[in-house]
Structure formats: C-alpha cells, structure tokens
C-alpha cells in the first residue's frame, strides 16, 4: 500500500463529513499524532518496524531544543556535576553488562537536563536525553535513592522502550481505525450501537497500551536494579525509593508527585523488586545520607524557587530550638539551605555567617568541604568580592589529591572524569580543565573576568569545549574571555557555537555571519595569520550550520 502525506493538524471535519472511512482516518491522526520524522510518509498498515537509532536521536534533538528554551531549564554547574557523578557510572555499568549496545552508546546523547520544577519527577526522552526536576533531588534521602531513579530511566532508553512504544502505537492504529470505521457504518443504522463499537475499540487499544507500559516498567526495574551494585550504589536504594513512592502514593493527592502517574507503582512491581534482593542484603542496613548529598538536596530545594517566605524560614531554621540534637547530615543540609536562601534574599551577611557554620560542620569530609567552599565562592562573587571568591576556590584540594579519598569517591568530586566513565574519546577529565572541576572552572573564570585578568583561563576553557562541544555555558564564558582580550572575532564564533550547542541553528547562523562581516571589515584575510585562520573556521562552520538549519526546517 502506498503512503500519502499527512497534514500536521487535524483535518477539517467539514471536508470529510461524507466519508466514514476518511473521517476515521482523520480522527486517528488526531488521536495518535505521529512524530515529525514520520509525518512525510506513513508506513503500511501493520508495519511493526522500530525507529532507527538515528531517527530517535533526531526526535530527541527536536524535543530538547524546546526544553532549552523553557524558563524552568537551569544549568547549575554544582547540581549538574553531582547528578552526572551518579548517572555516568550507571551508563558505564550498562555498557559493561551488555545492556547498552554500541550503536546506542555512539549515537545517543546521554545528557540530563535539570528543571526548577518543585514537583517530584524524572523522565526519559528519545535519543538518550533525560529530564529531572529539582523537586526529585530535594526529596530523596540518599544518593542511592537518586541512583535508583536514574537507573530505572536509563533502562527505559537502553531497552528501547520509546521506540517499542511507538511501534506498539503503530500496531494499535489498525485496531482503532477498524473500530472507528465499523462504528461509523453502524451509526448510520443504530447510533447507540455505533457509539458502543467506537468506545469498545478505543478501550481495547488503551488497555493493550497500558499493559505494554506495565511490562516496560517491570523491565526497567529489573535492568535498573542490576546496574546499581556494579555502578557502586547500594541496591537498597531501590527499596527505600519504592517505599517512599508507595507512601506518597497513599497520602498525596495534590499532584506534586507526577512521577507516580507516569510510573504507576503496583504491588507486583514492589513484590518483584523485593524478590530480587538477596536476604543478606535485605537485612543489612542501607547506607545513610552523605554530607554532600544533604547539601545537594538542600541546594535543589532552594533553587526550585519556593518563595521568599520559605527562604526566610530556612534562613532561621538553624536558630530553632533542638537544632543541635539533629543528625549531622540534617544540620549540614540546614546550614547549606540557610546560606543559599540568604543569598537569594541578598542578605550577604547572613549568607556568609551560615556558610562559615556549614564549613565548620563539614570539616573532615572532603566532598562536603569542597561544596562548602564552592558555595562560599558563589556568595563572594554575588557580593562583588572577586578576591574573596578566589580565596575560597584556592582552599579546595586539587583533583589529584582527592582521587584516593573515600569521601570524595562516594560523591561527584572534582576527581570524577567523563573519560573514565564514558570511555576514551567521549569526554575530558579534570586534568583537561587544568585540574579543576567544572564548577571551579566556571567560578574561577567569572572571578577573573571581574578582575579583567581572565586570559590565563583561555587554554583551560578551549580544552573543555573541545571535549564538550555542547557545553553552551562554557562557550559563553570563553566568548567573554576573548572579548576581554580584544579578540572580538573569536568571541563572536564562541557565541555562535553556544547557539549550536542548544540546537538554535538560526541564531548561530546570524552570529557566524556577523563574524564574517567583521572579518571582511577588519581585513582579517590579509592581516594576522591567527585572524585569517579564525575567519576560515567561521566560514566552514557557517556552511555546516546552514546545512543543519535546512535539515531542521525540513523537519517542521
């Protein structure tokens, strides 16, 4: 059967009112919208072939381009590093266990986007992209619980659940189409019978889809659980997270746990999980929260913008009666929340005082001390004290000195390297960024920019974006550094590359063309050799980006 073009919208019913079959096809297009890559040519009815990995990646790129523009999207260097420090070992474990095929490993993005939303949610997207709300980070008690959610979502991708779901929908299409056609024909004689056939056919298709989703949830539980121990996480994190979800499922009715709606918690899933845990592991106590996790959970809660009144409440919490009797992680989390909340309220004195108390409480814990100093640098920068910010950063041990520290190894310290986790050629290590973690690199550059002496960071930033070309934030920093050094042509190219990193090819083309115009006006081609090379790079990148822009426009 040949394929026909499909309209992007639902066809007007007035045009089709005389054809029952045509009306049913139009309704099917509205009920089961096709992804953009499939709108040009429909498969033949009954075609159950999966999406290719390239198609799924392109679909993911389209979705992620919109998420980058969402006002709730947040690129927080500290939280991003912490989340990646949990996620990337899971990816490595999936690869080593054979759960991650080489084709997916190579083609998919393996990127997590954070959103300021206070609801408890995480989700997998096509092409190896993942979304996570700050509300989830703020509510989990341990890094193992957070790892269990990531392992589950990762398994949705490695098991091609999104592709399989679209395939399942394509198989449901003929069933729903047949029910609609028969319903329309029956309605000409008996309207009640026609309506019953329509509803019955749709109900059967929906039930089949729900059953398929439950199967996927159980598979993601099984595969995700198998990743925990090899990735260095306690499997009990799955159990405690399920218990937390089960409790929320019973008492929560305000919509703040959307994760429960997209991942229905059934007694069978809970029973399956408990059956997988060896008795010895089940009897052993689950690891408690690390100081670093307590800080990151507090950071997520504060940055989710709960409101001025809540920030004030958190600023005052350490002064409440009985505070000193609470556990150390609880006190550390409260001090962190108090300091960062005071910063949001622009109360610099309170922010500094709480940070000093935090530093004292975290003394002896390498990962916790590092986070306290990073927060201190953030506070000083916000207060316009670049020198003090650099002093805070100077107190953080170098990456190499933390590499063998158990406290650092349990978290996402600067010693974590993308290359060591994702394999050769896939990322840069801390050594590639001058021994700095990404948060240190960004904060140090920002402080030096304030002092108009950021030139020494140029090489570090260039190395970083070479290994992480999709890091838009660092591209923008590099643009600022080059601009400060009187190299506007390089600055414009860096700005263009930042737009490319966010899939905003139209804006990137504009910046590349601005660079072209600048090169012509300044006569770069006949002058300095470095400027000539830069102009040539801009021309090459402009052609490549224009090609990407055409492809992007064709998908709409």
Automatic annotation (TrEMBL):
Cofactor: Zn(2+)
GO biological process: proteolysis involved in protein catabolic process
Organism: Paracidovorax cattleyae
Boundaries of every Peptidase M48 domain copy: 110-276
Lineage summary: Bacteria, Pseudomonadati, Pseudomonadota, Betaproteobacteria, Burkholderiales
Stated name of the protein: Putative Zn-dependent protease, contains TPR repeats
One MF annotation (Gene Ontology) recorded for this entry: metal ion binding
Keyword field: Hydrolase, Metal-binding, Metalloprotease, Protease, Zinc
UniProt xrefs under Pfam families: Peptidase_M48 (PF01435)
One GO CC term, this protein: membrane
PANTHER family assigned: METALLOENDOPEPTIDASE OMA1 (PTHR22726), METALLOENDOPEPTIDASE OMA1, MITOCHONDRIAL (PTHR22726:SF1)
InterPro entries for this protein: Mito/Outer_Membr_Metalloprot (IPR051156), Peptidase_M48 (IPR001915)
UniProt keyword annotation of Zinc present: yes
